[in-house]
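Key result, reporting period 2: structure in, sequence out.
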């Protein structure tokens, strides 16, 4: 399968179905058996369904070598603990990802002197490790290759609970829709995801209410793998109503991914920002 990534605009209010499902409504359209190969980008009114793909290890290594030759040079000189220390000290992901070699060396000194932030970073990483959460830096071979395409918007660290092998699957489909979608919209997201899950392809969504929940549920009900990209630390479920769904995703071979460490709560800015990693 070619390694390509669909570009999707955020869901707009007019894309949400306004009419309630009735007895005479037509059934939602069903994806064809070769959808993941032949339909890289299409939209239905419940939200967006798009082909996206993570990359194989070979593709990943090639991309990582290219990136390290011309971008984010400073990151390779900073440990996971130092990167998290900088984030806790108020440095943005953009500042960190675009750091020059000179800035990285300066920040190493700052991290060494910022004992409170460094100690907090160590405690968080220890808690995450005890909870089975893997923290992956930008320069790791486990880092998802498509995130490199985000350039200076790429997260310096990602935190993953569950099956991190999904990060390297090439057969991923993102299903993202409105939280306030009505019954027909949610049914459509569910049926799409169920068909994709039956083929054992990966469904990516965001664990939000509405269409996202329906997409994860449809994939799980079909026995397929699903990946949720969330806007909080992995010790917090947003929304709280989806705590059992989050646990089920991990238990059934799926994964939860976030750019935020333990203790970080979702907010409107973070919810919008995580969308760049979903598609």
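The corresponding designed sequence is given below.
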């Amino acid at each position: 399968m070619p390694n390509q990534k669909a570009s999707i605009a955020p869901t707009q209010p007019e894309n949400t179905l306004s009419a309630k499902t009735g007895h005479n409504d037509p059934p939602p359209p069903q994806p064809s058996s070769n959808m993941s190969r032949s339909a890289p980008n299409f939209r239905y009114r419940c939200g967006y369904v798009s082909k996206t793909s993570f990359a194989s290890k070979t593709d990943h290594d090639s991309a990582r070598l290219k990136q390290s030759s011309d971008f984010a040079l400073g990151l390779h000189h900073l440990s996971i603990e130092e990167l998290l220390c900088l984030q806790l000290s108020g440095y943005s992901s953009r500042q960190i990802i675009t750091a020059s070699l000179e800035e990285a060396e300066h920040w190493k000194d700052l991290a060494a002197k910022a004992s409170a932030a460094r100690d907090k970073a160590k405690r968080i990483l220890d808690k995450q490790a005890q909870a089975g959460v893997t923290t992956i830096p930008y320069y790791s071979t486990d880092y998802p290759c498509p995130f490199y395409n985000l350039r200076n918007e790429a997260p310096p660290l990602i935190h993953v609970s569950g099956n991190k092998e999904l990060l390297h699957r090439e057969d991923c489909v993102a299903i993202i829709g409105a939280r306030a979608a009505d019954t027909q919209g949610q049914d459509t997201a569910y049926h799409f995801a169920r068909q994709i899950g039956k083929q054992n392809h990966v469904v990516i969504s965001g664990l939000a209410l509405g269409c996202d929940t329906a997409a994860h549920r449809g994939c799980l009900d079909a026995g397929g793998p699903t990946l949720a990209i969330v806007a909080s630390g992995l010790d917090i479920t947003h929304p709280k109503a989806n705590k059992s769904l989050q646990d089920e995703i991990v238990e059934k071979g799926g994964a939860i991914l976030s750019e935020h460490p333990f203790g970080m709560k979702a907010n409107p800015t973070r919810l919008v920002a995580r969308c760049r990693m979903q598609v």
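Residues 1-46, 65-70 have pLDDT under 50 and may be disordered. The beta strands are 41-44, 47-52, 133-137, 157-162, 172-177, 202-205, 226-230, 255-258. This case is discussed further under Risks and Mitigation.
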